[in-house]
Amino acid sequence: MNFASDNTGPVHPKVMAALMDANQGYALPYGADDLTAQAVAMVRDVFEAPAAAVHLVSLGTAANALILATLSDPWQTIFCHRHAHIHEDECNAPEFYAAGTKLTLVEGADAKMTPDSLRKALEAEETRGVHGPQRGPVSITQATERGTIYTLDEIRALADVAHAFGCPVHMDGARFANACVALGCTAADMTWKVGVDAVTFGGTKNGLMAVEAAVFFDPKHSWEFELRRKRGAHLFSKHRFLAAQMVATLQDDLWRDMATAANDRCGELARGLRQMPDVAFLHDPQANIIFARMPRAMHQKLHRAGAQYYVMDGDVDTGPADEQLLARLVCDWSMTQEAVDAFLSVARS
Q1: Parallel/antiparallel/unpaired status of strands 169-173 and 324-330
Q2: Residue 235, in any domain of the structure
Q3: What is the pLDDT of residue 16?
Q4: Same structural domain for residues 129 and 159?
Q5: Could you give the percent of the chain with pLDDT greater than 90?
Q6: Average pLDDT over residues 161-182
Q7: Whether residue 204 is found in the same domain as residue 98
Q8: Which of these three, 233, 254, 275, is where a domain ends?
Q9: Residue 212 belongs to some domain of the structure
């Protein structure tokens, strides 16, 4: 019953097999190998973008920070939601890699910016001349850190606002696959077709060991990203092991199958919890993450039964039994029906 994070789950066996296959003989380093060329071509096919620049790194934080550094200048500010991953969980990496570019936080319910809130934030900048930050990229977290999803129309509306101010749009897609299958759309539908200029195509949270693709739909950014990746110490020598993972997940739509499995288990968990009167959802779970308030007594029973997940506020062991504490529950591709059923059975007790 491990619902702590999709990061805690295992690597898919097909990915492990691909890594073993890649570990035969010799290959050119730093992305000059045949597997990397194959991975780049496959990513372009998935995004229906034959001219896109595709670069692999091992970490989502590196992909996000290096993309945003490429799209911005040090005197600019990056616009993102208050609960965006680049603000909450990346230890100022975007600001560091962009040499001082700051973040401007935008409001919105369910961890999603709205066109109005974004427009107000954009209008508030470039009002102080040389004394204030200039407008920079807009970054959208999809799926959000609260388990919600931007619809295609919502992404298009945000991109329209950003582009009206001359700002490029980045999508932090650490859980890109979960959002894509939940919307029933293609990778192209959720990115360049609705105005996204660059995307972090996440793999680590979706059954891979450690690889993310930084995708620029305008290849003019490619060389600068290459330089920033090297200067930032994120250019792998044995690059084929990144590429092998990406090739494996894109073959036969494995990336979509794994995301579907995680979303399905999360949906079953959510349906079971909704039937319990003492459980209250903070947001409508739309991908593979649930935020729900449950009584301390329920948390205690679950923990004693071996369930693993994060409690976001309060002490599970100390306090009134009926006090509501916030749980964060995440499903990964390997989550089983038996684990979901066991969790719900303990919670009902």
Answers
A1: unpaired
A2: yes
A3: 98
A4: yes
A5: 99
A6: 98
A7: yes
A8: 254
A9: yes
233 and 305 co-located in one domain: no
What would the pLDDT profile of 220-240 be if each residue is shown by its tens digit? Answer: 999 999 999 999 999 999 999
311 lies in the same domain as 187: no
Strands 324-330 and 289-295: antiparallel
Token pair in block for residue 34: 């045949």
Q: Is the pLDDT of residue 256 over 90?
A: yes
Of 229, 254, 279, which closes a domain? 254
Place 48 in a pLDDT band, splitting at 50, 70 and 90.
very high
Q: 288: domain range? A: 256-348
Answer yes or no: is 96 within a domain: yes
* pLDDT value, residue 314: 85
pLDDT at 44: 98
Question: 6 lies in a domain?
Answer: no
pLDDT for position 245: 98
Q: What is the mean pLDDT of the chain?
A: 97
